[in-house]
Amino acid sequence: MFSVFSAKIKDRPAALAAMSVTVVIMILFSGFTVQPNVIPSYYIWIYWINLFAWIFRAVVINEYRSPPYDQIAELDGTTEGEAIMQRFGFTFKGEPYDYVWVWYTVLFCIGTCIFSILMTVRALETTRFESSGSSGVEVDEDEDLSQTSNNVMTHSQAASLEIKGVTLTFKNINYTVKASTTNDELHLLKDISGYFSAGKLTALMGR
C-alpha cells in the first residue's frame, strides 16, 4: 500500500515523510496503543479502515477464542477470553468479537492489496518524473524522449572514434607444467621474448 506514495509523490523525502506519518497514525489507531472503545467517534473511521487494526483484532480474537480461555469467568456464562476482550474494548455492539471476524480480516487484507495495486498502477500511468528521481520535477514525455534521442550516440559516431591501445613487450618468459601421467615437469615456454602489437590478436603457444 505504501507503493502509492512512492509512485505519486514527486521527491523521496516527501514520500518518506508521508509514509512515516501514515505508519504512526496506523499504529496509534490500531487498537493496541489506544483501546478501540475509547477512540473518539469522529476518529473511529480511521480504526475501521486501518489495516494494522484489522490484523491486530484478528490476532486478539484468534488468541482469546482458543480453548485455553474457554473457562467460565462470569455468572452470565462469559468465558475468560470474552471477559478479556470486553475489558480491552474488543467488542462489536457490546458483544465480544466472534471468530468469524478473523475471516473478515482475511477478506479485508485481500481487498486492501488489490486496491493498493490498482492505485499504484494508476499512479504510475498518470505520473511521470525525471529518471534521477532526486529533483522530483515532472516532465513532459515528448520532451524527455527528444532529450534522450539527442544525448544517445549513434552507432556510426561510436565506430568513428579512434581506438587507442598499447604495445606489450615481454622478455625471457618461462612456463612449466606438471605432466598428467607422470611426475615430470614439461617446459612449455623457455626464454621466450617478443611483443604484442596494439589492436592485433596474438597467441603464444608452447610445445
Model description:
With about 210 residues, this protein is α+β, with helices and mostly antiparallel strands. The chain has two domains: about 5-125, no CATH class; about 165-205, no CATH class. The protein has helices at about 5-10, 10-30, 45-50, 50-65, 80-85, 100-125, 140-150, 155-160, and strands spanning about 90, 95, 170-180, 185-195. The strands form two sheets. The chain has a two-stranded antiparallel ribbon with strand order 1-2. Strands 3-4 form a two-stranded antiparallel ribbon. Strand 3 and strand 4 (about 185-195) form a beta hairpin. Residues about 135 have low confidence and may be disordered.
Summarize the helices and strands and which ones pair or pack.
Layout: H1 3-8, H2 12-28, H3 44-48, H4 51-64, H5 80-87, E1 91-92, E2 95-96, H6 100-126, H7 141-151, H8 155-159, E3 168-178, E4 185-196
Antiparallel strand pairs: 1-2, 3-4
